[in-house]
Amino acid sequence: MSYPIFDTHVHLGSARHSGRFMETETMLELLSNNGVQKALAIPFPVVDDYHLEHDRIGQAIRQYPDVFLGCTSMYPYLKAGEYRDEVQRCVEEYGFRAMKFQPQYHPINPMSDKINFIFEIASEFNLPVICQTNTGIPNSLPSLYIRPARDFPEVKLILCHAGGSIFYHEAILAASLCNNVYLELSTLVENMILDILATIPSHKILIGSDLPECIPTEFGKIKTLQIAEADKENILWNTGEQLFLN
Q: How many domains does the chain have?
């Protein structure tokens, strides 16, 4: 059976920390070759110029509006006004649909009041916040997002990597306790995904690739998983559509 696929976690542009560079056309070819119709494009977490990286994604959206959507990513110790202005620019100029917080490289505790401005901005512009939850502990522990999820119930929080292989049970706990917490499954193996589905309904679960070499694996594991077709459709497309297209 053929499924529409929404890759909710790709990176475009230049990465200062790893030396990676992903061109729009290269990513477009990879997505097309793997049956992916939509992709949420996010800057790498460490960049030389976040304006430039957001503009790269903005140009990808303008060139290929049927494929790409945009997500901001910035260092959380910017002045709140500067951070807000850039989110507003990206929304108004390019129609960005999300924000990302990456505590592995953006070292701040998600429960700290110092980060509240990020969730306040997300609320103002009605944007989901994608939160890194695997590498980067303690600040990437999924349980730390329970407090902001409760403090900002109108903001949808997406725990990307769903805590990873070690902390995915914490991600299950966070999504169980908070209606506005969703789980993105990249890097998890099949038995962990089944554990998540035993507790969390598939309309709160989505999938992304994160890195280009992972694209076939990430979507292939959902297609071949022994779960209901409706669950596959939710994970591969419907949840992403609900979060980023509606």
A: 1
